[in-house]
């Protein structure tokens, strides 16, 4: 595994209003059809998800598996899953399983949960409008 550090700047007010947000590109594994996404970094969610509209735009295919997603303050959901490649603005790519869900609060269409940070970490600096993701890729 290789460690990657991804730093993102965002206004302190936006972090407080929308949460930590990362611009991403996402594509089905094995495809070059990357589409733009706005990812919410959600440490209250145990897994990752993407919206049905983003899944359709990237030409995603359900893997046949189902994943159980648990977000903070919401009941757990069993949803269809897809395997996709997430590319961050640094060029770092991570392959993950994503549950496909109806929607997320705007402007988000990707949810990156705690499983992204296994073996790594997340540092959020609210005062200076900055966060760092430490990933094992």
- Uncertain residue ranges: none
Beta-strand portion reads over 45%
Number of helices: 2
Largest sheet at a glance?
Answer: 6 strands, mixed, barrel
Mean pLDDT: 91
Order of neighbouring strands in the sheet with most strands: 2-3-8-4-7-6
Question: SSE order, as H and E?
Answer: EHEEEHEEEEEE
Strand runs, count: 10
Structural class: mainly beta
| Span of the ends, CA to CA | 6 Å
Radius of gyration: 14 Å
Mass-distribution shape: globular
Q: Helix coverage percent of residues?
A: under 10%
Q: How are the SSEs placed, and which strands pair?
A:
Blueprint: E1 3-9, H1 12-18, E2 21-28, E3 35-41, E4 48-51, H2 52-57, E5 66-69, E6 77-88, E7 93-101, E8 110-112, E9 121-125, E10 130-136
Parallel strand pairs: 3-8, 4-7
Antiparallel strand pairs: 1-10, 2-3, 2-6, 4-8, 5-6, 6-7, 9-10
Description of the molecule:
The protein has about 140 residues and is mostly beta strands. It contains 2 helices and 10 strands. The strands form 2 sheets. The chain has a 6-stranded mixed beta barrel with strand order 2-3-8-4-7-6. It is globular and about 40 Å long.
Essential attributes:
6-stranded mixed β-barrel, mainly beta, 137 residues, 48% strand, 2 helices, 10 strands
